[in-house]
Amino acid sequence: MIAFLTRTRHAGRFDLTDWLAWGWAILGTLVVAIPIAWAVISSLKTEAEINSFPPALVPRAAQTITVDGQAKPLSMWVRTMPDGSEQTVALLRRIGLSATVLDPSKPEETFRVPVAELRQLKEFHLQWSNYSEPMKQFNFLRYLWNTVFVTVVATVLTLLLNSMAAFALSKYRFAGRNAMFALILSTMMIPLSVIMVPAFMVIVGLNLADNLWGVILSTVSTPTGVFLLRQYMLTIPDDLIEAARVDAASEFRIYWRIVLPLCAPALAVLAIFSVIWRWNDFLWPLIVLSSPENYTLQIGLSSLQGQFNVQWHYILAMTVVTLLPVTVVFLFLQKYITEGVASSGVK
Amino acid sequence: MSAPTSVAPVVVARGERIGDGLDAVMRIVEVPMATVQRLLGHARMPYVFILPNMLLFTVFVFVPVGLAIAYAFTGGTNLLIWDRPFVGLENFKALLDCGSYLEPSTCRYNLFWTAVHNTWWYTLLNTLGTLFFALVTALVLNRLTRGRGFFRAVFFYPVLLSPVVVGLIWQWFLAREGLLNGFLTDWFDTRIIFLLEVGWSRAWVVYVSIWFHMGFFMLIILAGLQAIPRDIYEAAEIDGTSQWRQFWCLTLPLLLPNLLVVTVLLLIRSVQVFDEAWVLTNGGGPGTANTFIVQFIYQTAFSPDLRLYGLASAASVLMGIALLVLTLSQLWLAKKAEV
Fold it and tell me: Is omega for the bond preceding B257 within 30 degrees of 0, making it cis?
């Protein structure tokens, strides 16, 4: 019964435990996918639709019709007459419990009917303006640019500085090497939440408060990156380096021309992680940045949600934009990401 | 959904092209670096290589650690340490001043103790919940002969999302007009404002955390499962051991070191809960039902009307000690697992 808990499986038989395993996997997939899918669907709804309850499973909008003699398009309704027959009408205006409507085929005749007889017609509609409007209204492009800037600069610096440190730690013998390596690894034990007050004071002291460089610089050195690259560099044979030294290459040239290109796979893994870390960072930018023009996406998004009048149709659209790059990276590189996590235990 | 293997050369090729761009810069950097080498000698070059990294670590980690302890013994609302008066153990005394530690309302800083209580319950439930779901999912994926890569990717995907995105997605899902309430209205004719009720909101914070982070721990456990040699099971099979016994007597004991490390890692992470809970509950609500220690530290230090840096640092130091104990026990366990 509970045999699915073990590793082995009888070849060629599809027994109860297989059913349970597949059931769990498929149910889990739904649990993961539904909330995300719901956010994506909702992000394409009109403001009126998003506030209507019970929610529709597909994005819709009111169906409209342009009638001769009317300046604006009119919304379409179905009128259920007292005898049960139905008629499609266009709504002119609505006062209290009665509405003035007309038959689109005879636009001259208007007549009044009780609102209770009307049911609105809706059609499938994707409200793409949810995506374009926030770009104009909320500085969203600014947030996007700030995030891209932080992500790219921090990742390049992380790769450069961490690989330099890893090079020193793996390819040289010098006094204090093990102590320095231990010190770097010990920073893994010190989470930001413990040092956020003094770290902010350091930022203020360096005059980097409310500055994107304040966000970038403190995240550049990562113990994970140094560790990952050092382990990889240890596998590069020292003979290569000795040969280059014989050819009178400078140490920096050896690092740049020989060691770094050979580290490409490890650098790629670190780059993927660094991009995801910096794109998703929240607490540290929240502390450092204070003026809206410096906000990153994550801070901008969370600040909009706290506003009095929550405009979910915009927030959800921006949420989708925010999760899109990470999703694309994952779709193409998921093998490297999951293997990187499994082998090094970093996230 | 497994990535095509041809991606690797593409990535590398692209990396090389970026490398070409950087090359020009590096050719310029090479000149002063060669001069530095001539001045210092080849033996001192590793110090030059490690310097930038160590400098950043010193400024942004080691100095703050020292300062955190120093801050905890000072009072007032000035940010710069030299403007702050020394108050001795006052901050710690204030935080620990309690009629009964089990009853936050009897404490001088009852918000701190509310946060401690909330964090304690969250840590307990989140650790057990994540461990359970991660273990079962890892066992299931380990058993699947087809589709393993696909499901592994699906379960891992939420880990990569940002806490803000996760908080917002779930807030929308649980909203008054959300999908869940749509179903509840359809089937049971009732509506629950989940995030405004103390019990429900706490349960959902734990649930969302499990949803968010489960994939990470699942991967670690899965790696542990796949490291168990197959022939042990084949031997057990020949001996006629039932699958139940195989699980209890082989899989679980062999996986135990891995599970212990995962548990401690979970504890360390849970104690630091903040981001996604903060976004999901609009800042720890309803009331203080989902206010955790990190949020207490953040608010005490940075909300404009408090700015109690000393008190916040004292709370940080207390949390840091708890985390240190957990981390050291993790290292100890990891070492034991290796032997």
Answer: no
